[in-house]
Structure formats: structure tokens, C-alpha cells
Amino acid sequence: MSGPAFRRLAASVTVGTALAATSGCTVPIDAVAGVSVTADGRLLGVMMVCGHRLDGATLYVDGADADRQVTVGEWTAGRRLTAGLTTWALDAPPAGWTATKPLAPLTTGTTYTLYGWTEDNTSSSSSVSFTLADRDRLAPGRVRYEAVSDSGDESAMTVPTAEFKARACQGM
């Protein structure tokens, strides 16, 4: 192979490798999902939109096949959720929300995951996982969410709503 042809091939491989390394298959995360409860114990979805917007949220469980998820509930906001805090009852969404898949009964021992999304996949929220036991430990005015440390480790945290609102978007 001649020198110029080899350099072109090497440059093509380098560019291809760089593109593969920098392109991702995930939607950018621009919001933080959480869960809370009402005074009478009803489950609330909580979203802190940090920048752009969200259009709705989905609650799911992982299916038996690693590539499949089972949707347990899905909600679409009547108006796009923009920067700030939003909550809604998952079993009976308020005016301005549509249950595109009404909440199915939740069962003991199952881990549920809630996340927010946009219809055009331009952004999403982080997700929060919980069981019914986790829900039962929640108190009104407190939010369970997945916090990310400076080293990138995730851990479930339960904090007052005001603290969630103040801290959830830090580092995004």
C-alpha cells in the first residue's frame, strides 16, 4: 500500500473511531424523576425539569427478556413541562394530564421505574426505581429520586420536596 493511500486509510479509521466513540444511542437527560405520596398515600409522579422540556412520563417494569419493558402506566402532559417542578397523581391524573395508559395495579416485590420523555426524543429525565415497600416509607412532602454523585455513582435518596427542587438539577 502506498504512503498516501495508507494515510487516507488511517485517517478514515481514526475519524470513524472518533465518531463511534462520541455518538450515543441515548437521549440527553435534562430532568430528574422522583416519586412521592399524598396525605392519603396515593402515589405521585414528580418531575424537576432542568432545562428544555418534557411531554410525559412512563412507569414500567423490566420484562423477562432483557430488551423488553412492560409499561404499567403512561401519562402525557396537556402542555409541555418546562423548567421547574411538576407533580401529578399517578392513579388519577389532574386536569391537563392524560393517562395514555392508566396505572395498572402495583404488586408487592416488583421494582417499578418512572422516567420522563419528549415525543421527539430530544431529551428525557433520569429515572427513579421503587418498590411498594419504598412507597410505603415515603411521607407527604418528601421525594424519592436517584441522585448521582460527583464520581457518577447513583443512589436512591429521599429528601424534602424543597431540597429536591433546589438540588435535583445541580450538575446537569
Task: Output mean pLDDT.
Answer: 83
Low-confidence stretches: 1-24
Through-space gap between termini: 48 Å
Query: What is the makeup of the main sheet?
Result: 8 strands, mixed
SSE sequence, one letter per element: HEEEEEEHEEH
Strand content: over 45%
- Write down how many β-strands occur, each being a DSSP E stretch of 2 or more residues: 8
Shape: globular
The amount of helix comes to 10-25%
Radius of gyration: 20 Å
Secondary structure blueprint with pairings:
Blueprint: H1 3-22, E1 29-37, E2 43-62, E3 69-89, E4 97-101, E5 112-117, E6 124-130, H2 132-137, E7 142-148, E8 154-160, H3 161-167
Parallel strand pairs: 1-6
Antiparallel strand pairs: 1-2, 1-7, 2-3, 2-5, 3-4, 5-6, 7-8
Tell me about this structure.
The protein is α+β, with helices and mostly antiparallel strands. 19% of the residues lie in helices and 48% in strands. It has helices at residues 3-22, 132-137, 161-167, and strands spanning 29-37, 43-62, 69-89, 97-101, 112-117, 124-130, 142-148, 154-160. Strands 1, 2, 3, 4, 5, 6, 7 and 8 form an 8-stranded mixed β-sheet that branches. The longest helix has 20 residues, at 3-22. The termini are far apart.
Q: Brief overview, please?
A:
With 172 residues, the protein is α+β, with helices and mostly antiparallel strands. Helix content is 19%, strand content 48%. The longest helix has 20 residues, at 3-22.
Annotation keywords:
alpha+beta, 3 helices, globular
